[in-house]
Amino acid sequence: MITKKQISDILKDYNADDLAIATVCSHSSLQIFHGARKEGLKTIGICIGEPPRFYNAYPLAKPDEFISVDSYKDIPNIAPLLRQKNAIIIPHGSFVEYMGADKFLDLEVPTFGNRAVLNWESDRTKEREWLEGAGIHMPRLVEPEDIHGPVMVKYHGAKGGRGFFIAKNYEEFLENIDESEKYTVQEFIVGTRYYLHYFYSPLKQEGYRLSNGTLEMLSMDRRVESNADEIFRLGSPKELEESNVQPTYVVTGNIPLVARESLMPKIFSLGEQVVEESLKLFGGMIGSFCLETVFTDQLEIKVFEISARIVAGTNIYTNGSPYSDFIEEGLSTGKRISQEVKLAAEQEKLEVILS
């Protein structure tokens, strides 16, 4: 992985008054470019081949320029050009997945956030060590041979839900598992899924204070998963099983949510615990992150996963959410990222938020 010193040396040649926000044209790029434009920063879209035409339909979210590559795995080849343009990479789920984790970790361009978090986030064993070390309640792990009720089987890495499946016994597990992939088996928690969108700033000192910096909770969503969210229109679970129709969990969209206000102390406490543990383990995750949770009918919150960067569920709130509007009217996660970059530049602390 590229070192902090290497990033520091690169930043010595950057013009802090002429920074550009760059990301791959996918996932949450419209929001990232829109937020950067609102903050007066230049934008660069990285795409394969011809720039996607749909950006022409959204002038307020169209990047100022595009850089084309033959493959996202070729992004390291354009690193010198990105550095020449004072570019700061904003990673998102598709960026890391398409480019590949190894190439992302070695990319010689200043990147928003702490890249070290990827080692903890993408490996579900280390992710559990992190979250349980933070005192977070997680679904119980189950050995395949001990499956005697519904469990969720998940593969490691960001796959947008593709390939995940539910098994009710060992036989169903064997029928569906891909042994070539690393996987985790968790008990299935009955409840409502809430995806909580936070932002941790090591620079701001006003607000919900942590041991260092502040925590914000900007929004929350629920994911629309195909075909799991519609499949039971075809019949009961037994009828589906008899028809050999299996639910899948590929994310196709997002739905806005708000939580009972009485749950907000718990929600902030969860975010605080996770950030504080990250500071101990790997120097802290910086910027936006999402806790993927289930709220039970006993008003318990179980965390089953973390995404340590901007998530696509924030795209619902490109002009603010019921929560972010209490901080600043019209504040999106994309805009908040650009605000943090500008604040770091003003305070001459870019090295604190970039890696």
UniProtKB/TrEMBL annotation:
Keywords: ATP-binding, Ligase, Magnesium, Manganese, Metal-binding, Nucleotide-binding, Purine biosynthesis. GO terms for molecular function: ATP binding; ligase activity, forming carbon-nitrogen bonds; magnesium ion binding. Gene3D superfamilies: 3.40.50.20, ATP-grasp fold, A domain, ATP-grasp fold, B domain. InterPro entries: ATP-grasp, ATP_grasp_subdomain_1, IMP_biosynth_PurP, IMP_biosynth_PurP_C, IMP_biosynth_PurP_N, PreATP-grasp_dom_sf. It catalyses: 5-amino-1-(5-phospho-beta-D-ribosyl)imidazole-4-carboxamide + formate + ATP = 5-formamido-1-(5-phospho-D-ribosyl)imidazole-4-carboxamide + ADP + phosphate. It comes from the Archaea. PROSITE patterns: ATP_GRASP (PS50975). Its EC number is 6.3.4.23. SUPFAM superfamilies: Glutathione synthetase ATP-binding domain-like, PreATP-grasp domain. Residues 101-332 form the ATP-grasp domain. Coiled coil: none annotated. Pathway: Purine metabolism; IMP biosynthesis via de novo pathway; 5-formamido-1-(5-phospho-D-ribosyl)imidazole-4-carboxamide from 5-amino-1-(5-phospho-D-ribosyl)imidazole-4-carboxamide (formate route): step 1/1. ATP binds at residue 225. It holds the Pfam family DUF1246. Its cofactor is Mg(2+); Mn(2+). The keyword Membrane does not apply. The keyword RNA-binding does not apply. One of its GO terms (biological process) is 'de novo' IMP biosynthetic process. 5-amino-1-(5-phospho-beta-D-ribosyl)imidazole-4-carboxamide binds at residues 27, 94, 254. Catalyzes the ATP- and formate-dependent formylation of 5-aminoimidazole-4-carboxamide-1-beta-d-ribofuranosyl 5'-monophosphate (AICAR) to 5-formaminoimidazole-4-carboxamide-1-beta-d-ribofuranosyl 5'-monophosphate (FAICAR) in the absence of folates. NCBIfam families: PRK13278.1-6 (NF009781). Belongs to the phosphohexose mutase family. This is 5-formaminoimidazole-4-carboxamide-1-(beta)-D-ribofuranosyl 5'-monophosphate synthetase.
